[in-house]
Amino acid sequence: MGDVSTVEEVGRDTLHRMLYYMKLHRAYEDRIEVVYRQGKLAGPVFVGRGQEAVGVGSAIQLGKDDFIFPSHRDLGAFFIRGMTPEAVSLQYFGRRDGPMRGRDGNTHMGDWSLNIGIFVSQMADTVPVAAGVAFALKQRGQNNIVLCYNGDGATSRGDWHEGLNLAAIMQLPVVYFCVNNQYAYSTPVDKQMAVECVAERASGYGMPVDTVDGNDVLAVYASAKAAIERARSGAGPSFIECVTYRMTGHGSHDDARYVPEQFFEEGRERDPIPRLIAALQAHDMVTAAEIAHMDARITLEVEDAMQKGEEGALPEGPEALTGVYAE
Amino acid sequence: MGDVSTVEEVGRDTLHRMLYYMKLHRAYEDRIEVVYRQGKLAGPVFVGRGQEAVGVGSAIQLGKDDFIFPSHRDLGAFFIRGMTPEAVSLQYFGRRDGPMRGRDGNTHMGDWSLNIGIFVSQMADTVPVAAGVAFALKQRGQNNIVLCYNGDGATSRGDWHEGLNLAAIMQLPVVYFCVNNQYAYSTPVDKQMAVECVAERASGYGMPVDTVDGNDVLAVYASAKAAIERARSGAGPSFIECVTYRMTGHGSHDDARYVPEQFFEEGRERDPIPRLIAALQAHDMVTAAEIAHMDARITLEVEDAMQKGEEGALPEGPEALTGVYAE
Amino acid sequence: MITYLEAISQALREEMRRDSDVFLLGEDIGNFGGAFKVTEGFLEEFGAERVIDTPIAEAGFTGMAVGAAMMGMRPVVEYQFSDFMSCAFDQITNFAAKTHYRFGVPVPVVFRAPTGGGFNGGPFHSGCLESYFVHTAGLKIVAPATVYDAKGLLKAAIRDNNPVLYLEHKHLYRRVKAELNGDDYVVPIGEAAVRTEGDRLTVLTYGAMLHVCLDALESIPGADGAVEVIDLRTLVPVDRETVLASVKKTGKVLIVHEAAKTGGFAGELAAIIADEAFEFLDGPIRRVTAPDIPVPFSPPLEDFYLPGVDDVAAAARQLLEF
Amino acid sequence: MITYLEAISQALREEMRRDSDVFLLGEDIGNFGGAFKVTEGFLEEFGAERVIDTPIAEAGFTGMAVGAAMMGMRPVVEYQFSDFMSCAFDQITNFAAKTHYRFGVPVPVVFRAPTGGGFNGGPFHSGCLESYFVHTAGLKIVAPATVYDAKGLLKAAIRDNNPVLYLEHKHLYRRVKAELNGDDYVVPIGEAAVRTEGDRLTVLTYGAMLHVCLDALESIPGADGAVEVIDLRTLVPVDRETVLASVKKTGKVLIVHEAAKTGGFAGELAAIIADEAFEFLDGPIRRVTAPDIPVPFSPPLEDFYLPGVDDVAAAARQLLEF
Ligand SMILES: Cc1ncc(C[n+]2csc(CCOP(=O)(O)OP(=O)(O)O)c2C)c(N)n1
Ligand SMILES: Cc1ncc(C[n+]2csc(CCOP(=O)(O)OP(=O)(O)O)c2C)c(N)n1
Ligand SMILES: [Mg+2]
Ligand SMILES: [Mg+2]
């Protein structure tokens, strides 16, 4: 499994969109880190630099009525679902008009009108929740599906085990991704489990398991495509481990002292964005001008988003009291 | 793995002890069910009828300073560790001098002076706790080990996942048994998991996994022997699934309507006690007289235990207030 | 005459017939009809898609219910014993309770919690866990004491757009009976019921303890017309108006619950009263509760543990004489 | 001068040097020195057997700690944020808390819970979870507010033969400083400290709110000698004597905690006082707490959420004038 899709298969248009979203993800986070260092943000920043191919190569394949539960490093997937860079900035700046209205910060966000679920900080809690969403879709005979993303660290939690098992027993239309960036905070995968890879751990649930190069958007695309078709066809859940590299510390406060330089070098060599560009160029599917134009557009979008985010109004204290309960 | 030990290997003496404990387990539970039906017990009864080989074939191999965390159906293992039938009766009758002093009932018991741990009702909670006991043994350089037993149902819980993983990462001297009696209350294994057997589920943790006929005490003995040696040698944990038959309802209140008669027939055919006797007889290792003598002795022991249990003094209400905190 | 347990079944069955989004999940609720037989026959009527036997995975099936509820379905989760909610504590308090506040998406899920002691269930089958959840904004908590309320509050809980913890007391399952014409009605969440009127002492209670309190009145000379027993019915949001109005009338308060004392719900009630009705108090606020120990198994120990008629009567007499 | 955080590290280091049975486990505490750097340098000094980096498995490593404690070891568990204790709720309340009562075996484990808000951590990194645990018999709960107590209470907790929940307030980590000669001392569990003496109002508080209360005194005319601020230091078992003695002297009570109001620990205190010191009360028992909502992220929302100097001062003035 996990064999790479050919550039032809995927097609120029989708490839360009993937390149755009990966670049937008990267550019947005490069910029928000600067904003953070300028002391303009109340909370921390968590980025998915170097991991963009995972969310983008999978979420790009969804239809309007499908659902995702991204992890805290899958910003590209938020963008693909239609969350705007401006909305993300309003979120980071804790503004009233952000998706969480200032009630939660950074990538602790979602937008149900865009079928983007939320997560709680407690790692892996979304695994059974996503199964519940998939259950509702199945129950109602919609042939929509759910993509749920978690890190390698999350797979050590009981909720991950219980959720995967339930999805498998009930044959639910959900695809679970492990964004294996090889670290949980400072803890490398080999201290989190006694097996070689997360996929081994996932092999005991009765669903197809795949491991792919998470820095190769075409590999992610191919594996996700098979799993999505399977889910849509009613054949049940799948698990896909995307091996990637966390190219920063855990959060904006973490200098990643504990990560060997070697690791970052590997990650840089495998950077998913240049790799996609190279593939496109090899097939004459993109010109330098097109890329320059894309970059220029993204720069403007990100700048605009940061400005709107910073200008957005903060909520007023007493607004905190509303909405604990639904009508 | 899991190949049957030869009768010679195990030896007459140990075989007789195993037969004795399996019979004692069986006889005790047959009797306590009668006592229950007579309305003499405040709480329910959970029996391991037909499952005796699992606890007996494994716990028989432990040394004095090893530990066990039995499940609620491994009464034979309690006896092997030195808990007396009288103590068990005092427990069932809720008496002051029972191992839990009337504070908990039925097989919710243990005796730390005998290195028998307790469980809380929450299934699988003992999995990480047993790992912690094993951790202490390892830390202190004792070459003792821990055996921890849980049902098939318990393996669906997050604590089972987290505990197995920790034991594997830390290479702890513990052997985990799954007493797979094919039901969790009324729920058959195929509704609990989408894989064929619990062993598949255990294969993702990086420890050796074995599946044995849990109704063949020699098979249990052989598999446990290998795992115990492994643990003692410092090579880390193992997992052993013992496939057996729950020959009753879940508890004394449950008529097991939902279990196909076929299942009970199979269980009867595979009854571990006659099988061990046959093996012994095939090697002229036991005489009818010896068996008759063993049965007679057990009858007396069980009767005596029931009487002492019934005669034992109940605690007085205010005694409930002591011992919430240690000095 | 139907039992408290049958009232629960009736409410579930009627709501499932009324609304195809209502479904049930939990351990042994299908084939077996539930550990207490609340869902007996449901599998046959509603099928395996709506009466789901789960593995032993409280966190997992709670999370699943939350996800389905976010989609507008109305799951009713049965925990085999309320004690096992401890295994789903994170999903209940963090995902179910906080999602509407953060995300604006309703989570209409009901958590059915078979609660309480009185049958020698021991430390892990007898719990009254309400105090673990009253502190979590976003949850509603109801605790019916009567057959009528068992049905009406469950219907209200199922129709509510928030996570509702429904505390059904095991001791009442087959002990309380009443006539219920098969009517479709709800008991609104948030309204207490005055069970006896009185002007000298307010007794605040809920669940099985209501019956202990009512029995206690028998042994209190002159209780008639003097002791006002209020059945809270809902713990969150608690009916402050009814509670405060009664206290302002009587000036004396006894709070009775089965849960252990320290950190129990009585504390919250005492705090509300000692703040908002202080000027009306003519005596100390007293609590009759279980002691601060796990629920012991052996009959004499559990009998001692559970607040009884005598404990309530003694405390009430004291306060009346104060 | 050392910080509250350094005092915690000191206590841990000294106890680990003193007793080889003491060991630490939690996420990122070894290599990384802990999310807040409490255990910086510990891996180097004590080695990987005693400073254990765990996977993300709160239930699992809590259960492991309980098992090791049953063997007589003295594990100190670090939860990266106290909020994540919700994932270990079952192991803490059922296994750790109830084992000595049922089984007679001590469980000397310490649960270090980085607690509280004030740094825009949002709903899952700012929690004050004490109320979830005060109701569970078998646990002790301490909440140091000063550098001295941070060290002395942690040593007491480690040497105690029971599971002790140690609430270390993140907001105090680097904000409070004091001279500590490297002495080896314990602050006994169960003893409150009177921080200011007064005869007209008792203020009961703990943790970071102690400092808010002390600051509030500044803005209360005539607070000096009038307001008695009591730092509870231990929540379970609470120091009833000190609390009741003060209330009997002042007749007025203000209870301040950072946790949300409903079901918060203030309720328990109010209930104790309204029962045992009722005759001495000259005014309502007031609570200043956070509102009943999740902890919001955005600065203006969190500022509004957290009880502040003005809230405390206003409530205190009101009571003094009552
Ligand atoms: C239950 C729980 N425990 C601890 C934490 C603190 N924490 C936040 S992120 C993180 C590491 C997560 O690692 P991983 O799942 O691999 O995701 P990544 O950050 O690497 O994308 C930890 C330990 C948490 N969020 N939830
Ligand atoms: C967390 C939890 N949920 C539910 C229960 C109720 N319960 C008690 S035993 C049992 C079935 C256990 O099945 P299994 O683990 O296979 O053990 P067996 O009884 O078959 O030996 C259930 C559901 C429980 N004890 N713990
Ligand atoms: Mg990771
Ligand atoms: Mg079973």
What can you see in these coordinates?
The complex is a heterotetramer, with 2 copies of chain A (327 residues) and 2 copies of chain C (322 residues). Chain A has 327 residues and is α/β, with parallel strands linked by helices. Chain A is built from 13 helices and 7 strands. Chain A has helices at residues 7-10, 12-37, 52-59, 75-80, 85-92, 126-139, 158-169, 189-192, 198-202, 217-232, 261-269, 272-282, 288-311, and strands spanning 67-69, 146-151, 174-180, 183-184, 187-188, 209-213, 238-243. Chain A has a 5-stranded parallel sheet, with helices on both faces. In chain A, strands 4-5 form a two-stranded antiparallel ribbon. Chain C has 322 residues and is of the alpha/beta class. In chain C, the strands form 3 sheets. In chain C, strands 3-2-4-5-7-6-12 form a 7-stranded mixed sheet, sandwiched between helices. In chain C, β13 (253-260), α9 (265-276) and β14 form a beta-alpha-beta unit. In chain C, α3 (58-70) packs parallel to α4 (89-103) and α7 packs across α11 (309-321). The model of chain C has no long low-confidence stretch (mean pLDDT 98). Chains B and C meet through loops of B and α3 and α10 of C. The complex binds thiamine diphosphate (2 copies) and magnesium ion (2 copies).
